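Memo to structure team: turn this sequence into C-alpha cells by end of day. - J.P.
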Amino acid sequence: MNTLVIVLIAAVCLVAAYALYGRWLAKTWGIDPKAVTPAHRFQDGKDYVPTDGWTVFSHQFSSIAGAGPVTGAIQAAAFGWLPVLLWILIGGIFFGAVTDFGALYASVKNDGKSMGLLIEKYIGKFGRKVFLLFCWLFTLLVIAAFADMVAGTFTAYEVVDGVSQLSASAATNGAAGCISLFFILFAMVLGLVQKKFHLTGWREVVAGLVCTVAALAMGMLLPITLGKDAWLYITFIYIFFAATLPMWLLKQPRDFMTTFMFIGMIAGAVLGLLVAHPTMNLKVYTGFNNESLGTLFPILFVTVACGAVSGFHSLVSSGTSSKTIDNERDMPKVGYGAMVLESLLAVLALCVAGAAAAADGTPAAGTPFQIFSTGVAGFFEMFGVPVYVAQCFMTMCVSALALTSLDAVARIGRMSFQELFSVDDMKNAEGWRKLLCNTYFATIVTLVCGFVLAKIGYSNIWPLFGSANQLLSALVLATLCVFMKVTGRNNKMLFPPLIIMLCVTFTALVQRLVALVQAVAAGSATFWVEGLQLIIAVLLIALGLTIVVSSVKAYVSSRKNSEKEGAKA
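Reply from structure team:
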C-alpha cells in the first residue's frame, strides 16, 4: 500500500477528531473563558506563569513527544502495520487525547494541583502516597533511560573489539550535542526577551525562529568531540537547571524552539512521502503471536504507548502545563491537540519504517531511532539539503525527542518527591520535612538516584516500563471518573478506555510475572535481572489493585454533583 494514502487517512481522522470529538468534550465538560486560571491566581514567576496558549501547546507537545511515538510504533510493527495504525488512531483519539485533556482539565479546575494531589482529594490520602511514590520511581526510570539515550546519541566514540575509537558519525553526533548546548543558551535569551518585551503572535514566532536557526547554524560549525560519560554529566547538569529554574526562563522557550524543529521534521517526512510516495513494505499483519515480542494482546498496546495513550502525559498535563494556562479556552488544543499531533508523528514513524523495509517485508536494520532518522534525512537530501546538514538536523531532532521529555520528567520527579513529604501547614512543619520539600534538595535526590540507575543499568527493569506507563494511564482515568461524577460532569466516555487499559496492563503484568516465575523455577534467573523484575511486577500489580479498589469505593460512595452542592452550602 502507498504510504502517502496511509498518512492522508490518518491526518483526516486526527483533524476530524480534534474538530469534532475534542470540541464536544470541551462543550460537555464546560470551558469558561472568563474564569481566573491557577496561573493568574497563584502566579509566582516560577511554576505558575500565565502563558500564551500556543507556547503552552509547544511545551506540552515537546514534553510528551518523547522516544515513545517513534520507537513504539516501529517496534510494534512486528505484528504488522495495520494493527499498529488502528491502535494509534483509535487509541490516540479515544484514549490518549481524552486522558491528557481530562488530566489538564481536572488540574486547572483544582488550582493547578498535580495528579497525586487530585487523587488525595477524590480517592484518599493513602492513594495519594502510593501514587506519588509510584510516580517518583517511574520518573527515575525515565530519567535514567532518556539521559543514557541522549548521551549515547551525542557521543563521538564507539567501542570496537574492546577499544574505544572515533566513530564514523563523530562529527554529526558532536554537532548535534553542540546544537543542544546552543539551544539552552538561546532559549534563555529568548525567555529574557519575552519577559522584557512581552512578545506574542508573529513577533514571538520570529524571535523563536531566529534563535532556533542560530543554534542550529552555530552548533553545526562547532561540533564537540566528547565521550558518552562526559555527555551524561552535561545532560544531568542541564536537567538540574531545567527542573529548578522558572518555567519562563528555560523550559518554555526551549520547548517553543524545539517545536519548530519538530514541525520541520514532520514537514520533511510528510513532503518526502508526498513526493516519493514509497510503498509500505512492512507486512499488513504477521499473526497474533510474535517470537520476540509475544502475543498481540496485550503487547501491542503497551509497546506503542505514547503514540496512542501514555500515563506519563497526564503527569505533564497536571504537573506543569496546567500551571501555565492563561485562559481555559486554550485547554482543548493543549490537552487534546498536542496528543493527536503526537499520534500523527507515530503514523509518520511507521510509514518511514515501512518505506525503509525490504520489498519482502524484512524490517530495516538498526534501532527505531536510526531507522527513522536515516529515513527522514534521506527525504531532506532528496530536496537538495546537504547530507551533513540533514544528518545533523535529524540527529538533533531524535535526541530532542528524548531531551524535552527528560527535562519535563525531571521537574515532575522533583515535584512528586516534594509532594510525597509535604503537609498543608509547611510553615510549621518539622525541619526534616522542610528539607525534603526544598526544591533544590528534592531535585538533587531525584537526579542522583536517576544517575545511579543510569550507570548501573536501567535496562534490567526496562521491560516493565510499558506496563507501568499504561497502568499509570488507567489510574489517572479512574481518578477522572470520580472527579467528573462529584462535579456533575459527564464521565461515560472515560469508562471504555479505563476498562480496556486495566485489562491490558494487568494481563501484561501477569504474563510477565508468569514468565519470571518460570525462569526462577528453571534456575536460569539472576537476582539483578529477573529477580528485580519479579519484585517490581508484584509491586505494580499490588499498586494497581490498591488504587483501583480505592477508586471504586470512592466512586460508589460519592454522590453526583456533590462537590458543587457542598460549595453552595
